[in-house]
Amino acid sequence: MIEKILIANRGEIASRIIRTCKKMEIRTVAVHSEADSDAPFVKEADEAFLLGGSKVQESYLNIERIMEAAKTFKCDAIHPGYGFLSENREFAEICEKEGLIFIGPKPEVIEKMGNKVESRKTMEQAGLPLVPGISKPLENAEEAIRAAESIGYPIMLKASAGGGGIGMQAVSDEAELRKAFEGNQKRALMFFGNGDMFIEKRIVKPRHIEIQVLADHYGESVYLWERECSIQRRHQKVLEEAPSPFLNEVTRQKMGEAALKAVQAIGYTNAGTLEFLVDENQDFFFLEMNTRLQVEHPVTEEITGLDLVEQQILIASGEKLAFTQQDVKRSGHAIEVRIYAEDPNTFFPSPGKITDLKLPEGNNVRHELAIHSASIVSPFYDPMIAKLVVKGASRNEAIEEMKDALDNYEITGIKTNIPMLKQIISHEAFANGDTTTDYIEKYYKKSLPTT
Ligand code: MV4
């Protein structure tokens, strides 16, 4: 049985994990940087360990210091959260070598799903629908041009080790591909240490819809429906909702079953998410698999009533899933917005000292916070400082809940993207479910008041 968990993360997800551990009467250890010494998650944990300086290399990516903390406090398990080391095969391996339970899938599965060409091949063999493309690395522009001729323009050039859109470019013809190949290959090599590139047919006006799965160590797995995550800015999700306003019940079930086929094919265990692109005909195509708990997991929790962190810990403890697919009910509609410490016009980060924090309250409002009313928002980390989640019996009710909550959400002392979120949620296009990936460029108008 797991009695003490080290949370190898910070901010809102660390607080979120600690909250469930308290509910399960599991003790917690927070590891933190100097800049986070005063952060809520450090105080909420039973014990705390200062990793070192504020740079991520000295703290949240410092595997040696994290393992030292786990030993010092005699932890049984490590929860990696998302980002940082959560999809780092080497870290998962070191945990196991040191006799710690890594709360996530096996190291080899993390690696396999982290390589887009590898994961494409695996999913193709598992029978999942893929975007038409080439499932092997392309060495140079000439190879890419020949491959593109067999697929037909427009295409999407992608980096095999890519993520967050880095190394990815939409290309409409040969001249553009010749120009784009080397630059993206160099960027991929620089960012990921791997310059392997591949290409796919470009899906025009897609939606980004993902399926949450849970799988135990006994071959049982379930899908927990979908999340619509199309409203993104530069591949950074801004708003997520569950269920998708676009899918019909047939597609919804087909995507869930496809996700389970993948889970069984790769021997997946713990919580995971399969990302799909969905076109206007509701055809869906495997994009990538994330082997971690995602930022947007709360909207799934709100419509299923499950605590995904609890499920992760139970699975990692060797428990069987306590329910079958038939038991997984969904009700209502949930929407999450990410609150960033950034200027809503320039999108530049806006670190600094918060001087007041007023939160909307209500039965249908849920907060995940990285800050308190006097926090200093650090420039060292991702500028996401909070998530606001609302639930309604219907999508329209959830939209009204979000509008009210945002109207009563006040953070003073720094700039935030709240004015932008208010505009997004209030736009007629959102109410109509017109939420494709080009939503922000189509509907978001800047020159907003920044207070
Ligand atoms: C695509 C695509 C259209 N066609 N692939 C891949 C990484 C993920 N974060 C976004 N990805 C996409 N891959 C093909 N073949 C559209 C996206 C995409 C997207 C692309 C550009 C700008 C915003 C986007 C948001 C979601 C999905």
CATH superfamily of the largest domain: ATP-grasp fold, B domain
As a whole number of angstroms, the C-alpha radius of gyration is: 21 Å
Number of domains: 3
Q: How would you write the strand order of the largest sheet?
A: 13-12-9-10-11-14-19-17
How many strand segments? 20
Number of helices: 15
Distance between the termini: 49 Å
CATH topology assignment of the largest domain? D-amino Acid Aminotransferase, Chain A, domain 1
Q: In the CATH hierarchy, what is the class of the largest domain?
A: Alpha Beta
Give the topology.
Elements: E1 4-7, H1 11-23, E2 27-33, H2 40-44, E3 47-52, H3 63-72, E4 77-79, H4 89-97, E5 101-102, H5 107-114, H6 116-125, H7 141-151, E6 155-159, E7 169-171, H8 174-192, E8 197-201, E9 207-215, E10 221-233, E11 236-242, H9 249-266, E12 270-278, E13 284-290, H10 297-304, H11 308-316, E14 333-340, E15 352-353, E16 356-358, E17 365-369, E18 376-377, E19 384-392, H12 395-407, E20 410-412, H13 418-426, H14 428-431, H15 439-443
Parallel strand pairs: 1-2, 1-4, 2-3, 4-5
Antiparallel strand pairs: 6-7, 6-8, 9-10, 9-12, 10-11, 11-14, 12-13, 14-19, 15-18, 16-20, 17-19
Helix pairs in contact: 4-5, 7-8, 12-13
The protein binds ligand MV4.
Residues 131, 156, 165, 168, 200-203, 206, 208, 232, 235, 277, 287, 437 line the site of ligand MV4.
